[in-house]
Structures are given as structure tokens and as C-alpha cells.
Amino acid sequence: MEVRLIENGTVIDHIPPAALFKIITIMGLDRDTEHRMTIGTNLESGRMGSKAIIKITDRYCAAHEIDRIALFAPEARVNTIRDFAVVEKRRVEVPARIEGFVKCANPMCVTNHQPVQTAFEVVAEDGGPAGKVALRCRYCEKITRDFGAKPDTY
Amino acid sequence: MDKRSLISITDLSKEELLRLLELAAWFENNPGQRLLEGRVVATLFFEPSTRTRLSFESAINRLGARVIGFSDAANTSVSKGETLHDTISVITNYCDLIVMRHSLEGAARYASEVARVPVVNAGDGANQHPSQTLLDLYSIQKTQGRLDGLRIMMVGDLKYGRTVHSLLEALSHFDTEFVFVSPPELRMPDEHKRRLDEKGLKYTELAELEGNMDEMDVVYMTRIQKERFNDPMEYERVKNAYVLRREMLRGTRDTMKILHPLPRVGEIATDVDTDPHAYYFQQTRNGVWARMAIICYLLGVKK
Ligand SMILES: [Zn+2]
Description:
Chain A is mainly beta. Chain A is about 10% helix and about 35% strand. Chain A has helices at about 20-25, 65-70, and strands at about 10-15, 35-45, 50-55, 75-80, 85-90, 95-100, 120-125, 135, 145.
């Protein structure tokens, strides 16, 4: 697939295809009727085998969005484009902590019963695929794996 | 002074644990210390637990402080739908320290973020109950005269039992050898065994209790709960396989002690109660000293 250059905006590259729709949710692109965007998936990639890519015009990633993208696609690159040139090429970094956004998997956790914002410590996943992370709840201390992305409610 | 709460046993360093044990021993030898005269401690039992509440209230009374609170949330604003945030925000203004028990996991950690005063977690669902762990550790130290170089057997539900997980965490600061005895479906979870591996501590897993206690210094018994089994027949079979009876104690060390967080539901036969190895009732008395130590330590009355 040929993807045309964009003048101003963001290119998120090196997304594992399996994580694409989670990133679309994180960024709210599924509800975005304003910005012009191109989304490609199952594209050939020397390094990853196959990858997905998102190009959005006139839309830039906030720091908290980059943190969240990193949870699902730790190898992704977020490139900022101005006047057709890449002005910032940024590897995402898995954050040490994540607040809000992810729901604790423990049904008995206080965050699932009281109006408490969730907070997690990001821990390495033992025995899981490389780069995959797990989250330890600050409150109930349980591990949440296979977390989904949910639109920001806080 | 910085406010300090006790929510999880992992909030304490090894040095702090040892200091709390020292304080507990001091209170046992000097029980009539009215160090908290004029103070108020709130005991908020959103979930009832008479035993734990009375132990805390005994500790608070011995220290000369007054107790306010509730033993059941049923007749409070909580039952009218007040959030935990609001309940704690109000009560924190009435007292110098909060002891709380709640059925939701993480409730005590959250309360400690809301409260102005220190919070002691007296149980948050299946998560943590650090004063139980401290009294267990104190009981082990008191009966064995040390914490290093002990062989400790844990018996029963090792998968879901929060008391054994917290005790394991606390004991992993010391040179302990563990023996885990449980049915296969209730084995010690891997994450805990991995922590022992990282610390270079030895452990063995067994399916049988009988005949395996001879080399032990402590046998820590726990309940096997019916809710853990899908098949009631399986529960009946398993339950009976982990009952400690007096005749099984022949050949064990004279100094070996049997501990149990109580209440028991038949996993220790009553004929064990009068055996010199039985320690589970004395163990509850140690809870008062451990709780006096925790409260004074958090309030900075004893450092
Ligand atoms: Zn949680």
C-alpha cells in the first residue's frame, strides 16, 4: 500500500497489527470525524514481519496517549510531521506507572466499586512474550493482564 | 511528623519488622502502659470481625486511649450509600488513628490516601491483614527464640490463603526453610515460590501431612474453604486429608509449635488442644501486644 506523505500531523509506525484497534480506541480515532487519516495494517515490515501504521493530519499525540500506546505497542514509533518533514521521531517508552484508563481485573477491587481512579505499577510479565507488560494495582495489589483499552472516562 | 500507615506487610522493612517485634515484647512485659491517654482511635469495621475488633480494642484500651467507631456498617451512613471517601474524610477529623476492615480489596490503601491520620489495615477482603502477620511472626520468635534457621510448615489452602502469603513475605527476610503441604489444587502460587527462589530460600511441596512433621519447628495450619471447590465431594475428601490429630504429633520436636490464624473449622482435632505443641490460643494473646506495638509506632509514641 502506498501511503502519501502528510503535511502536518502524526505518523505512528511499527504497530503490531494485533494492537492496531486498541490504539485506535486509545486515540479516540473511531469517533474522530474531523481529522483526515490513513490507516494501514498487515503491511510488510522487515523487522517485525508485519506491521500497522496510522497517519493523521493536524493531530498530535499527548504525552499520556504515548504512554498508553506503549502499553500495547512497546515498539511503536511516533513521528511528528511539520511541513512534510519529520521534526520528531520518538520511540514510545513503557511508563513506570499508569493512572486511570485501565480497569483493574479484580472484581473485588475497591476501584471497581467506589469512585476511585485506578493506578497501576507497570511490571515485567514473567514468561510472556517479549515486551509484554502486566500491571499491578496500587490498591488491591493484584496483577491485571490482557487489559483492554477503554475510552478515557476520567 | 509524616503520617505513616500500615496497609500491607510489605510496607515494612526488615528493620521495622524487628523493631515492632521488640516493641511487642516490651508491651508483653509492661502491659499497663497508658501511653495514649487522651487520644481517640476509631475502629471502622465496614465488614464485621468480632475477634479482630476486640483484639484491637483491647490493645487501644490498654494504652489508655478511647475507642469510637462501628462494628458493622449496617446502621451507618455507609448503608445509605455514602462513599468510602466521604466516610473517611469525616471520621479522620474525630480521631488520631483509624483501624479499618473492609470487604473490598485495596479499601485500606485508598482510605490511607484520603485520611489525615494514620490508617491500620485490619483486613481488606482477601488482600492484606498485616497485624495478623506481625502477631504470627511474634509468636514464632517468642516460641522458638529466633527467626533465622527455622523450618516452617504451612498446611491447607496455600493458594488463596492471605495469611500464609503475608507470613511467607515476612519470613522471607530471614533464613527460613519452608515446607508447603496442600492438595494439588490449592498449591502455593508460582509468584510466591519465585520470590523464595530469588532470595535463595529452600522450600519443599508435599501432599501429605502425616509423617512429615518430625523436623519442623513450626506447623502453621489454615482452613480449607468449601467455596474453593466446584465439586463438594472433592472438598470432603480433601478436607479430611488435612486434619491434624494428636497421634500424628508423636515423634515431632518438643519445641515444635502449632499455629493457626483461627477460627478453625475442624482442621485441628480438639484432642490437640491440650497437647503442649498447641499454641493457637496463646497466639491470639500475642495479637494484643503486636497491635499495641503497631499503634504506638505509627503514632510516633514509641519509635
Ligand atoms: Zn485493583
